[in-house]
Amino acid sequence: MHRDRIRRCLAWGLTATLLLPITLAVVLGLGGLLGGLGDALGAAVCARIGLVLGSVWLAAIVATTAVNAVATLEGRGGPQGRHGDRPRRPRRRRRIHRDERVLPGLGETTSERPS
Q1: What is the pLDDT of residues 67-98, one digit of tens each?
Q2: What's CA 82's distance to the chain center, in Å?
Q3: Where are the alpha helices (DSSP H) in the chain?
Q4: Under DSSP, is residue 88 helix (H, G, I), strand (E, B) or coil?
Q5: Residues of the chain below pLDDT 50
Q6: For residues 94, 99, 103 and 107, what is the CA-based torsion angle, rounded to 10 degrees?
Q7: Would the CA dihedral through 82, 83, 84, 89 be positive or negative?
Q8: Cα-based angle 63, 27, 16 (whole degrees, multiple of 5)
Q9: What is the pTM assigned to this prediction?
């Protein structure tokens, strides 16, 4: 996939993920209001619309997660990583020699300990 297409999908998915619960709350609230006023048909219609919106919201969350995973995997770009053209070097770890270890409970190293 092209990078711009992934970003566009992420933008739409994020927008849907954030706005659909607000719309769902408004529709369900309207359905409760209509049911309280005695309009059973309007309350049933709002309940059906709420069911569809909830399903679309769940699908938007799953799709956004999948597109985010694709964007993350695509961003790594092979052995060179995110560092451009230079290959990534492994980290060097400092080896601690037996004489340099700190004994538990003591603030000094074994090489400084009196004999």
Answers
A1: 999 888 887 654 444 555 566 677 777 776 66
A2: 20
A3: 3-36, 40-76
A4: coil
A5: 78-81
A6: -80
A7: negative
A8: 20
A9: 0.60
CA distances from 90 to 72, 81, 85, 87, 93 (A): 21, 12, 16, 10, 9
Beta bridge partners of 109: 102
Give whole-number Cα distances, 7 to 2, 31, 52, in Å.
Answer: 9, 36, 26
d(CA 32, CA 44): 10
- CA distance linking residue 76 with residue 4, whole number of Å: 16
The amino acid that residue 34 corresponds to is L
DSSP letter for each residue of 16-46: HHHHHHHHHHHHHHHHHHHHHTT-HHHHHHH
The distance in angstroms from the start CA to the end CA of the chain is: 68
Instruction: Spell out the domain ranges in the chain.
Output: 3-74
